[in-house]
Amino acid sequence: MASMCKEGVCLHAEKISKIYPGTKALDNVDFDLLTGKVNVLIGENGAGKSTLMKMIAGIEQPSEGKLYMGDEEVYFKDTTEARKHGIGIIHQELNLFPNLPVYQNIFMAKEKKQGLKLDNKYHREKAEEVLKKLEHPIPVDTLVGDLRVGQQQMIEIARNLVDDDLKVLIMDEPTSSLSEQEVQVLFKIMRELTAQGISIVYISHRLEEIMQIGDHVTILRDGKYVSDADVKDIDVPWIVKQMTGEGKSYPKRDRGIEWDKQETVLEVKDLTLPKSGGGYLLNKVNFDLKKGEILGIYGLMGAGRTEVFECIMGLRPEHTGDIILEGEKLNIKSVAGQIEKGFALVPEDRQREGLVQTMDIGRNCSLSALTTYTKGGFVDFKLENEMVEKEIKDIHIKVADKRLPILSLSGGNQQKVVIGKGVLTNPKILLMDEPSRGIDIGAKTEVFDIINKYAEEGLSIIVISSELKEIISIADRVVVLSNGIKTDELVGDEIQEEALVLASYKGHHTN
Amino acid sequence: MSTNKNESNNKLMMTLLKGRTFIVLIVLLIFFSIAADNFLSMNTALLIGKHVALYGILAIGMTYVIITGGIDLSVGAVVGLAGMIAGGLIQKGLTLKIFGVTVYFSVPLIVLITLLVGALIGVLNGLIITKFSVAPFIATLGTMYVCRGFANLHSNGATYSQLKGHEALGNQGFGFLGSNVAGIPVGLIILAIMAVFFEIILKKTSFGWHVFSIGGNEKAAKLSGVKVDKVKILVYMISGICAAMVGMITSSQLAASHPATGESWEMNAIASAVLGGTSMAGGVGAIGGTIVGAFVIGVINDGMVMCGVSEFWQMVIKGVVIVLAVIIDQFQRNLQAKMALKARNESK
Fold first, then answer.
1. Cβ–Cβ contact B209 with A under 8 A
2. Chain segment A292-346, per-residue pLDDT in tens
3. Could you report the predicted ipTM of this complex, rounded to two decimals?
4. Domain-embedded: residue B18
5. For B304-320, what is each residue's pLDDT tens digit?
6. Mutation for B interface: A63, A351, A358, most B CBs within 10 A
7. Does B69 contact chain A (CB < 8 Å)?
8. In degrees rounded to 5, what are phi and psi of residue A213?
9. What is the pLDDT of residues B253-267, one digit of tens each?
């Protein structure tokens, strides 16, 4: 009795299970991939979305269950095999070669050759063509390592688009580092692809996006299939309910504080950062921060948001302008010096900049504050222990034993460790760069709770976010950057999606 | 049920893997006791101990360097140079041409000066690596040649022999470093003291933790406020000091300084650290393991000599042992990662 794909189904997964030592990542999951549709896969971190996609892309093989394409059963022993069947994947974590130029990245392992000689003319032209289609005409000889994360994401997408026989494109959180504008470009491309009959699997944590782009939704929870539905028949609360088993939404903010009467903790005056090769990454940016305030910085990718933090933390010694902490103009020398003065940074890229993967949970937590727990160079273990325990409890890091490796934690809990590390230095100002990037809704809400809690306690916080709904719900005031220029500053009820989006494009017109 | 069994299997495997170098050491000792007639004797133990002291002390510094994700190829040459400096100061003294006098220092002062030179070379390595962003491999390859060159220049390639000093000059007693106290080689005692000292620094001080953090993720360490450059410079300084110490011990053991001493010893030091579980990728390592690793290298070297294995075969076998060690190390890491993943899934 041959099982096969139904009408309009391009790939059928039947009773797929994946067993890792001691755990079932996937449990008897059935999944139909609809031809020419955007198939959305939703679930909290650890629900099994990425695992299921790894089976389909040939990165890992199912422990049980079968895959069918058309009338035949298929088995992908590796990605090459899956690619032969027209399946491409864009990974959550970028898989690019930062040391190589754009066109080589795009054609890596699918080089066109004339005899032994590489046809680089073809590579360059085709790469240019694809990037133009993606509305990102990046010079193809640029090193990928020199590109911003958003641009790198586009290269990853371009890599899959040069395949002629592409049938299925799996996108695992492709928008997590894209700006609103870039996301819209991506959606346009996705529509073009589906119109050509290409089936897309789309994994995202951003529910509003799913409602906009998705055709059909499948929800997983704890490695099991929960439900599926056409997007037109459902709404966001329904999805959230299916995912978590209960209704959840972002907390609303109304603090009722008269900010004018609050003391100013930080003033940034005429902050300017020249760009190598002319122009400015930041051009005379001014803003201030009150005690206990949550200031949002919104902007598109490349607007200069992260650079503001880099200047404040001492990573950009070439900047000009004044940074004034509690009335005192700072002479910024090093990161260590800035931390001593009362700044703490939660960096954008958790894995690359936030965590030391070889150290355990507790030590990651205490790393920044460690020198304050020492007596004559020796670590006071009792004190260190106490402080870490307290912090773990304070921000609800779910951990059985703090001596476990940091990577044994889920993404959300890892992020809490990074936040805890910053808070343990007793900062006056906490700088958070995309604090909710790549973590599930449950953890996001918890991170927001943490931010609110510390703000209530009087900590002044600056949050960078590219998610509109997030920044609206969390910030007391929002500074909008566009092309290195501050284009708007919104307070209270002025903080609206339209106003933010509008301001985020302004900087490009004035130049 | 089966997962429980699996788990305990994994745990047993882990314990065996973690103690692997020690197990290898014991197996080697048993093997050579059977294979070589006079292996199990006090004399052999003393001989191996003297050699292990040299590799072990070098490997302590190397372990620090490797934990930060670096490498120090200059240590062998620093051994040679340190020996020549100490030997030269004893035999020729220091001639100050401007004053037209030659100064002879007492032995403790000579030891101090030599250690200082080692420290300076280490600091130089650290400065080149941090301030000029030169890869550690290249920076220390360069200083390796420079130091070896100076070691030869010091005597024009000749050996300083009979390093006894003169009573009249008050510089006798250099032989102490190579002698035995209560039947134990002084080098081995120095090794023990340094091992304990540097293990404590590594595990109990914020400096030690910072060393680990740099090797684990340098960028995250920097953003966490770790003074990366300063820590790195100190680490290469420690390596330089260790090398200078070894240079003096070996000169004292031989009562002579030869400029070629210590050639390719950096490889023994690296091998000891790696055998002891230090990860070349950085972020992982311990002095205890390194010392066991140094004993393994020492026992293999001397054991094979006593079995009459040719020098050429010794190289082959040493190479195989090192590669095997790294393969097993990788295996352990994979198992550890698997167990971490499992813990993560269970906590959901």
1. yes
2. 999 999 987 678 999 999 999 999 999 999 999 999 999 998 999 999 999 999 9
3. 0.80
4. no
5. 888 888 888 888 988 88
6. A358
7. no
8. -105, -25
9. 999 999 999 999 999
From CA A283, how far away is CA A486, in angstroms rounded? Answer: 8
Give CA–CA dist A442/A341, Å, rounded. Answer: 33
Range of the domain at B109: 39-308
Phi/psi at A283 (5° precision): -130, 100
Is the Cβ–Cβ distance between B264 and B285 less than 8 Å?
no
CB B242, CB B76: distance < 8 Å:
no
| A489 at interface of B, judged by CB pairs closer than 8 A | no
Reply yes or no on whether the pLDDT at A21 is more than 60: no
How big is the CA angle at B72 (ends B66 and B74), to the nearest 5 degrees? Answer: 165
Task: Please give the Cα distance from B316 to A88 (Å, whole number).
Answer: 46
Does residue B72 belong to any structural domain of this protein?
yes
Best probe of the A interface among B224, B341, B345, by most A CBs < 10 A, is B224
Cα–Cα distance measured from residue A232 to residue A214, given in angstroms and rounded to the nearest whole number = 9
Domains of chain A: residue spans and CATH:
9-244 (3.40.50.300), 263-342+427-511 (3.40.50.300), 356-426 (no CATH)
**Phi-psi category of A256—alpha, beta or left, where left has phi over 0 and alpha has psi -120 to 50?**
left
Please report residues of B whose CB lies closer than 8 A to that of A25: 345
Q: Is position B187 within any domain?
A: yes
Low-confidence ranges of chain B (pLDDT < 50): 1-2, 348
Residues B341, A222: C-beta atoms closer than 8 Å: no
Check residues A480 and A502 and name the one with the higher pLDDT.
A480
Give the nearest partner residue to A358 out of B204, B210, B283, using CB atoms. Answer: B283
- How close is the nearest chain B Cα to the Cα of A23, in Å? 7
Residues of B in contact with A358 (CB under 8 A): 212, 215-217, 279, 282-284
Considering CB atoms only, which of B10, B226, B343 is closest to A404? B343
CB pairs under 8 A between A and B: 125
Which residues of chain B make contact with A377, given a CB cutoff of 8 A? 205-207
The total of structural domains in chain B comes to: 1
Within a domain: residue B3? no
Q: Rounded to a whole number, what is the distance in Å from the CA of A336 to chain B's nearest CA? A: 4
Contact residues, B window 37-56, toward A, CB-based 8 Å cutoff: none
C-alpha span between A239 and B171 (Å, rounded): 85
A218 to chain B, minimum CA–CA distance in Å?
21
Task: Give the list of residues 6+ apart from residue A286 with CB closer than 8 angstroms, or none.
Answer: A268, A269, A270, A271, A486
- Return d(Cα B215, Cα B285) in angstroms, integer: 10
Residue that has been written with the tokens 């090192």 in this structure: B322
Q: Which residues pair with A115 in a beta bridge?
A: none
- Could you tell me which residue, B184 or A462, shows the higher pLDDT? A462
DSSP E strands in chain B: the ranges are: 94-96, 101-103, 160-161, 180-181, 184-185, 256-257
Residue of A nearest to B343 (CA): A408
Q: What is the mean pLDDT of chain B?
A: 89
Answer yes or no: are the C-beta atoms of A346 and A419 closer than 8 Å: yes
H or E stretch at B335: helix B311-346
